[in-house]
Automatic annotation (TrEMBL):
Membrane topology: Multi-pass membrane protein
Classification via Pfam families: BPD_transp_1, OppC_N
Keyword Transmembrane: yes
Name under which the protein is recorded: Glutathione transport system permease protein GsiD
Species assigned in the record: Roseivivax jejudonensis
UniProt entry keywords in alphabetical sequence: Cell membrane, Membrane, Transmembrane, Transmembrane helix, Transport
UniProt domain ABC transmembrane type-1: residue ranges: 109-309
Gene behind this protein: gsiD_3
Family: Belongs to the binding-protein-dependent transport system permease family.
GO biological process: transmembrane transport
InterPro entries: BP-dependent_transpt_permease, MetI-like, MetI-like_sf, OppC_N
Listed SUPFAM superfamilies: MetI-like (SSF161098)
């Protein structure tokens, strides 16, 4: 008979490896986040604004875009005061049409966040794809893609977005313009913002494609598409995530700028930029709250997202550790 090792019951079972949630909480990135007051405050402000936008239909005091619930007699009610005629009270006041400013801000946040996130996702997908193709394929393909990017960089992004929005609006039938205005806005901002993703991914891919794991994938017969998607792409995503976070703040500001200029969200679906444009007309007549509160909300949202992007850039930079 062969000797079999006996298990010491006193030793107990071996400890289980930590789960994914524990490893994520114990990571360097999570530690840096927990010990950064700026990141914590920015994340809290962003979370509050995002939840306010998502839950707007349930937490908004009024439905500001339902004509049946509007009362023109509530117009220009100051913040926190009771209207002498109707007896209604508005925490942040009301605008010229009697709409609750707090409710319009919550619903306007939905449009601004949706346009910003969708535009960044579109720009990220387009820029990452073109950057991977340009660096991996090379030759005339790389030359054409990067020369288009260089030409686009010579123009301000907001002018490119206005040009694309105007062209798309011009070729859209009049009866469908308001229905597709939001999607046209997403297309315009996304096409004006893809260049930085493409340039960063191209530079990182030029470094990665000459490494041994890519050469090994070629030797075993992997297709170029599989190599780009399954091998190179995961290794170039860190700078892309940082750029996407910062670009989100810029996309929100770009949407507000276009809407403020009257070429963005339609009046039936006003964003924060549209609300600021409406409030600007009453600033010098004494109704300051119509402009002030939407502008402060836009400032808080853009600043908090931008600070989160700056923190993420520093946290993922190995030279700063």
């Amino acid at each position: 008979m062969t000797d079999r090792p006996e298990t010491d019951p006193a030793a107990g079972a071996p400890p289980r490896p930590p789960g994914r949630l524990y490893r994520a909480w114990d990571s360097d990135l999570a530690y840096a986040f927990r010990h950064s007051p700026v990141a914590l405050v920015s994340a809290f402000v962003t979370l509050v604004l995002v939840l306010g936008a998502v839950l707007a239909p349930w937490i908004a005091p009024y439905d500001p875009f339902n004509p049946a619930t509007l009362n023109l007699m509530n117009g220009f009610t100051p913040p926190g005061q009771t209207n002498a005629i109707t007896g209604d009270t508005f925490l942040l006041g009301s605008d010229d049409q009697g709409r609750d400013v707090l409710s319009t801000i919550l619903f306007g946040l939905r449009i601004s966040l949706f346009v910003g996130v969708a535009a960044v996702l579109f720009a990220l997908s387009l820029g990452v794809s073109l950057g991977l193709i340009a660096a991996y394929v090379g030759g005339w393909t790389e030359t054409i893609i990067m020369r288009i990017a260089d030409v686009q960089l010579t123009f301000p992004a907001i002018l490119v977005a206005m040009l694309i929005f105007g062209v798309a609006k011009g070729i859209t039938p009049v009866e469908y313009r308001d229905q597709v205005a939001i999607w046209t806005l997403i297309l315009a901002i996304g096409l004006s913002d893809w260049v930085q993703f493409a340039r960063v991914v191209r530079g990182a891919t030029l470094v990665e494609k000459n490494k041994e794991y890519v050469q090994a994938a070629r030797l075993i017969g992997r297709s170029p598409v599989a190599i780009m998607v399954r091998h190179i792409l995961p290794n170039v995503l860190s700078p892309v995530l940082v750029i996407a976070t910062i670009s989100l703040a810029l996309a929100i500001i770009a949407e507000a700028t276009l809407s403020f200029l009257g070429v963005g969200a339609p009046p039936t679906e006003p964003s924060l930029g549209t609300l600021i444009r409406i409030g600007q007309g009453f600033l010098f007549s004494g109704e300051w709250w119509i402009l002030f509160f939407p502008a402060c909300t836009l400032l808080a949202l853009a600043l908090s997202v931008n600070l989160l992007g700056d923190w993420l850039r520093d946290a993922l930079n190995p030279r700063l550790r």
